[in-house]
Amino acid sequence: MEDVTRRHNEKKKRIKAARDKMMKEKNKEKGLVIVLTGPGKGKSSSGFGMVMRCIAHGMPCAVVQFIKGDREIGEKTFLRDRFASECKFFVSGEGFTWETQDRERDIAAARNGWQIAKEQILDPEIQFVLLDEINIALRYDYLDVHEVVEFLLEQKPHMTHVCLTGRNAKPELLEVADLVTEMTLVKHPFRDGIKPQKGVEF
Amino acid sequence: MEDVTRRHNEKKKRIKAARDKMMKEKNKEKGLVIVLTGPGKGKSSSGFGMVMRCIAHGMPCAVVQFIKGDREIGEKTFLRDRFASECKFFVSGEGFTWETQDRERDIAAARNGWQIAKEQILDPEIQFVLLDEINIALRYDYLDVHEVVEFLLEQKPHMTHVCLTGRNAKPELLEVADLVTEMTLVKHPFRDGIKPQKGVEF
Q1: Which domain holds residue A151?
Q2: Does residue A4 fall inside a structural domain?
Q3: Could you list the residue ranges forming a coiled coil in this record (chains A, B) (predicted)?
Q4: Which among A36, A55, A198 has CB closest to B42?
Q5: CB atoms within 10 A of CB A116
Q6: Does residue B75 fall inside a structural domain?
Q7: pLDDT in tens, chain A (202 residues)
């Protein structure tokens, strides 16, 4: 065997041993509070990728879209048309906030969405709840972050996963989350005059 | 109307005008090279979220999994069982590299995956190709990054999207990408002894 190959294989063996040991210690189960934030692309699409995984495992899901509104976006069509019994889909927002220009209406929509969200999280059948773009509603104080955090800490069933997306997640929410990813924008085609692409952005 | 509400609405109106103008200038269409990298959670799940969007829009897809191997992961079951005609699914890797401990076999698997990937990208029917975890194969030089970059620049059909995931993406790849997100790990439940959760991690 070549020297480089042998060294590579030995190194891999050590990594595997360390990893096996680590994985043995990771034995707790818990419904996670997942926050996907940051300005980069991939927050909602990652949330919907997890919904796909849950459906595959027979875990009933619910999605509440807080801000994106009633545009005909791919994930909504997909889940509503084909997976209505596996994943409940609710839309509370009426479009991005810059489209509505009506703070009172935005607040009413956000509060309505949060009401639905609580019901879905409390539903013992539901195992994964995606609160898409809720961070925008929290950021503009359409919803009180303390109310949301308190509910997640005190009323979320132990094994239910809740995923909250949207940029500018509040520190209070990050504090109670189990898993946080910040999507950092390194490059975006907008800068080169390319419009949002079907299948990629919506 | 309250003062704060009026000021909010006026600000929103200005943002909307600026945004409408900007969106008018974003009128180019292009098949994107998308790179999702970084140590945080959400790279593969975001890739699969885009596959979901593409299927919803009737855009045929292909997935090549380079490293994750033949584990029964949710996204594979989901796409193979339910969307075989909308999304072709190929597995080239035999597990994470620390599982295989055999560099020659890893290289052979990666080269096989890249061969399939090229065929799928060149297929005029296919509109979105997800090369899941290919960055790992590139990082360990199982594949030559220059060969991959050259192919993307010179042979990828203009309107085909290609999404490449995996941590430690090479600078040469970032250079030619249209869209790059770095998934930054802020918090991960592994640290608290929680094992990978079904529906969330696989």
Answers
A1: 29-192
A2: no
A3: 1-28
A4: A36
A5: 19
A6: yes
A7: 567 788 878 877 887 787 777 777 777 889 999 999 999 999 999 999 999 999 999 999 999 999 865 566 888 889 998 999 999 999 987 765 666 678 888 899 999 999 999 999 999 999 999 999 999 999 999 999 999 999 999 999 999 999 999 999 999 999 999 999 999 999 888 777 788 889 998 8
State whether residue B85 sits within 8 Å of chain A by CB: no
Q: What is the CATH number of the domain that holds B148?
A: 3.40.50.300
On chain B, the residues whose CB falls within 8 A of the CB of A32 are 189, 194, 197, 200
ipTM: 0.84
**Chain B neighbors of A181, CB-CB under 8 A:** 40-42, 183-186
Number of structural domains chain A divides into: 1
The residue behind tokens 């810059």 is A98
CA distance B36 to chain A (A): 8
Cα separation values, A137 from A86, A107, A131, A143, A148, Å: 26, 8, 11, 6, 11
